UniProtKB/TrEMBL annotation:
UniProt KW Metal-binding keyword: no
Record keywords: Signal
Native source species: Paenacidovorax caeni
Acyltransferase recorded as keyword: no
Main subcellular localisation: membrane
Protein name as annotated: Outer membrane protein
């Protein structure tokens, strides 16, 4: 009986200790990143469409349900891109790409904390403007909404109890249908790879 009680007490102590450690670390993690957006620019319209690559700011909010399982919401403000056909500027557009990811965080590597994520991206295209000559000749337009998968891998390196350095790579699937008048000319896939570095704060 005494051995059983001691075993139960030990399990309770370990469970409460783990819960206390998780509580002390805090379930929320907020990161700010500088992200290089490198577009795949896959085009089936025959116009060789592309958008420019650029560095964008990113705000990420994560909530940890357990030490290993978290959800991350990735945000930025509408990003403006030059739209090109065969390398020639034909207009511009903005895209707003919030992304929600489910993550698994590995906890058995000491101060090195890698994670993987998978989720969904929604992109809204706005402020779509074409060169007047292109507009007159082709009457172009694009579908304004895109849904696609998102994949992620990254790691955190703790700097203090709450502050960490973060490296992150994402592949996001973003596409839009392109029209000339009422006729669909093809599909333009941005499908960028995003490589980011930033700081995280756990609370």
């Amino acid at each position: 009986m005494k051995k059983s009680l001691l075993a139960v007490a030990a399990v309770c102590a370990m469970t409460s200790g783990a819960a206390f450690a998780q509580q002390a670390e805090g379930p929320w993690l907020v990161r700010v990143r500088a992200v290089n957006l490198d577009s795949a620019n896959k085009d089936s319209t025959g116009l060789d469409l592309s958008v420019n690559n650029k560095v964008i700011p990113e705000l990420d909010i994560s909530y940890f349900f357990t030490p290993n399982i978290a959800a991350e919401l990735i945000l930025t403000y509408p990003q403006k891109h030059d739209l090109r056909a065969g390398g020639v500027d034909i207009g511009s557009l903005k895209h707003l790409p919030p992304t929600l990811l489910a993550q698994y965080h590995f906890t058995n590597f000491g101060g090195f904390k890698p994670y993987v994520g998978v989720g969904i991206n929604y992109t809204n295209f706005s402020s779509v403007n074409f060169d007047p000559a292109v507009q007159a000749a082709l009457n172009p337009s694009i579908k304004r909404n895109s849904w696609g998968a998102a994949l992620q891998v990254g790691f955190d390196i703790p700097l203090t109890k709450q502050l960490s350095l973060n490296f992150d790579v994402k592949k996001v699937y973003i596409k839009t249908d392109v029209y000339s008048g009422d006729v669909k000319a093809g599909t333009f896939k941005v499908d960028p790879v995003l490589v980011g570095v930033g700081l995280g704060y756990r609370f």
